Give the backbone structure.
Amino acid sequence: MEKYIIHFSIIIFTNLFGSVDEYISEIQSYLETGEYQKANVEFEQAIKYFDANATLYFMGGEVAVKLDRLDDANKYFIKAIELDNKNEEYRSTQQRLEELKNSMTSARKTFDGGRMNDAIIEFENLTETFPQHAIGYYNLGRVYKVNKEYDSAVLNYKKAGELNPFEEKYSLAIIAIAQEMAKEGDTEYRRQEFDSAIENYKKAIQYSPVYTTAYFKLARTYFKMKDYENTRIILEENLTVDPNQEQSEKMLGDIYRSTDNPDNAIEHYNKAISINGNYYKAYYSLGATLLNEGQNWDSRDALKTAILLEPTYAKAYGALGTVEQELGDIDSAIENYIHATEIDPNAYKIHYRLSSAFNLKNQYEDAKKSAKECLNIKRNYAPAYFELGISEKALGNKVAATDAFEKAKKDKNWRKSAQFELDMLSKGF
């Protein structure tokens, strides 16, 4: 009777927790596919119920080695030997692990001591002796990184990743190097050394083809150089890696706006907004483009949204002032221009627009003041001289008006309008 009770208990236990063979099979399967973390979960679950199985502990040791947990691996191999001391495979594997640990300890000491060239030799020897262990390649990559030999570092990190594809730290190590290259590119970009910046951004992408920030920075550099074709190519590559990048969509819009393709510009600004509804710069660019296209009501809506999202955005207030002026609401235009200049006192174009609006309201002293504020910031700015001439003429200052129109006339875009005003002055009008 007791025999049957024991047998029945075994059946229940097996049904509830699975057999040791099932666990071993699962662990083996995960080892073969490189899913070492999953293999470890299975192992840790299994030894709760089967803590006297030598094969299980041996496989746990193999899993621990793959996870770079050499001390745990050694502990599991020793346990397997204790449970099956006649198994030569267990003994040889444990001895092999001891060799790996000793080599790793020695190489790390050399590394920690700052002897990088010696560390490279030791880790290279380690990878030759233990070519199936990712930990050796990873550490060799670390040494090369410290030496700023980035090509070699990435090569070894990639090798480690091939051996252990589910270990995130290897890919993160590559991204870290890509970030280093991008930082160097940033420094050169700030110095306006654009060719060097481009090379470093390209290197970052070469190291980590999924590092989207490097694509954007590379595109930004091309855009700064007015190389719009390469800007477009890089941005489209970037969006292939990750379609949900509002900054890339906006910059595509900026390209098309700069190349007189407003329809495509509007399309990409809207795409940027669809990705990020709080992207106030995209709303501003959309509004500015719509303004240039004479779509004033839609422009006003977009610019008001930009201001709602970012109440200190001077450019949006300036553009909204222009829209209001186009729509005939001069008081609102003046209000927005003033708000813009309060936020950014050096926005000379907005001072000019404010001068223009004051002239339309016959507030000539205010117009004169705003025009001069513009010229204090931007000398020889023809539009401001023209508005200054209008206000001086209205105030009866013929000499000052003539001088202002003469200066405006030096700009070919304002020559005709300025000459007309000069002719009118000469006729007494």
